[in-house]
Hints:
Elements: H1 24-32, H2 41-51, H3 60-72, H4 82-95, E1 101-105, H5 109-121, E2 125-129, H6 143-157, E3 162-165, H7 168-177, E4 183-185, E5 206-211, H8 222-233, E6 242-247, H9 252-260, E7 267-269, H10 275-283, E8 287-291, H11 304-312, E9 316-319, H12 325-333, E10 336-339, H13 342-359, H14 368-371, H15 376-389
Parallel strand pairs: 1-2, 2-3, 3-4, 5-6, 5-8, 6-7, 8-9, 9-10
Helix pairs in contact: 4-5, 8-13
Amino acid sequence: MTAALPSRPDPQFEVRETQHRDSPALGWGKRLFKLDPEQNLMAQIAQLKKKLRIKSERSPLDLLLASIGEITAYPDPQKGWRAYAVEAGADILRQQDIKAIISTSPPVTSHIIAKRLRDEFKIPWVADFRDLWTQNYYYPYSPLRRIIERRLELKTLSAADALVTVSQPAVDDLHSLHRQKPVHSIPNGFDPAEVNTTPAKLTDKFTITYTGNLYPGKQSPEPLFAALRDLITEESMDASDIEVRFYGPEAGWIDKQAERYGLTGIVRQFGVVPREIALNKQRESQLLLLLKWNDPKQRGAYSAKIFEYLAARRPILAVGDFHDVVDKLLDETKAGVSGQTGEEIKAVLLRLYQEYKSTGAASYSGDEAEINKYSHREMAKKFVSILDSIRL
């Protein structure tokens, strides 16, 4: 069950699509900026920033939106979906023999909906957190709002029969707040249908590709840029062979960092592209770049991106300052390596570049059996096990 989707769902699944109503304040915001009331606000704001050539992530427009969101987007911008979803969910539960509910977030509104349905129909409920709620490593609001929202989280999840999140460190965090609840770890995964089973033709250049959002102050490609600059200066790599590609919302600070390290023309941003194109860019790349969170408190944070990368079957370079769950995953799957220091990153780049120069391809040696443990099929089996263990 979902609010309006950006595209038609897969026909093999039964998906009940509901209406979604903006809050009065959100509707006012769209009118203020003369935006389409039927389209997603943040997507339109991103286009507006591009039109106005605003590249800063801390522009007056961003600060204004953050201030508005602090009050109006409580508990999240999808709250206008709640009433319609409760009605649709109740209709489904009356008509069909549903044995349990699984809600997943973001958005956290899905858990509030699930609690309403669980209270009315008295069936087991599992609340799944792909990102934590008020313990989120990237919680965007003020400490005061976090205190208020934490009360909502405790009240909402008091009715859940089990909680799920993505890693053992995240399990520990969630359990510290919800001490009376069983909390389980089920990592993110990849769609088996998206596996690069027939290897794509690789790019002629030594391409290093990143797909997805970038979070300034939370992630940084600077260690990679420094390593590339050093290798080019040392003449260990030929600048004309190299291209670093970013697919996702364009960020002015990336261009500034590239210029600082003499990589203008090597580092390129291509903007947001359809998902299928992003997947193809991953599959054709010599190397895939993963930027880890740069705060040691975030050791339990996976990005969904790493699981897409596993499906792409290309070597992964994870860049970050400390060891975390990503290092463990890469070590188990042999799908890539992490670099904590400049010398480590340089060593990985040089080895793969030399392979590329010798054979036309950076080598990939992922362990298929270990990688397949992170498919959606394995995730589903773990959810089944949790549901089997729940008794009202």
